[in-house]
Write the structure tokens for this entry.
Amino acid sequence: MLKIFTTQLMGKFKHIQDNHEMVIEDISRLLAQTITGGGKVYFKGQNELQGVALEAIDGADALPSCAILEPNTELTDRDTVLMFGKFNDDSSFAQLATEYKESGASVIGVAASRKNEAQALEDTVHFYINTGLTTGLVPDEDGERIGHPSLLVALFVYHAIYLTTKEILDEHGIEI
């Protein structure tokens, strides 16, 4: 099972790299602009994906000018919000994105896009990354798919954004 899990997980990482490399660069330029322009980068993780926010704030690869988005935070047009959700069709999460966007903040969404479902989150954000993780990665003996590493895939996306943002800031002589 571990070999199947690893192979499938690497496939998800490759999917993100191949299909979202340019979006990651655009997001990183936006974050660099937010950081150097006096804004804040806020992280909002849905359920277990709050782990991405903790990594971004307290991890070894933390970006400067970052915070976890608290319910009463007043956003400005200099701020950027990165939202990590499990699936794109959670209407309450998409509603939050709309509220953040209406405040003037730039909003980035990361979630798995389910087919034939409302695509609410990607319709409400400035940039969207589809993780492609709609089911578990490994079939069990009953045919059920288990091993749904949503946090692991979201952390991969965060690190891709972090590395690209750091590269941009380094090019401009700004150390983080």
Summary: The chain has five helices and seven strands. The first strand starts at residue 41 and ends at 45. The beta strands are 41-45, 66-68, 80-87, 106-112, 127-130, 138-139, 145-146. Residues 2-171 form a domain with the Rossmann fold fold (CATH 3.40.50.10490).
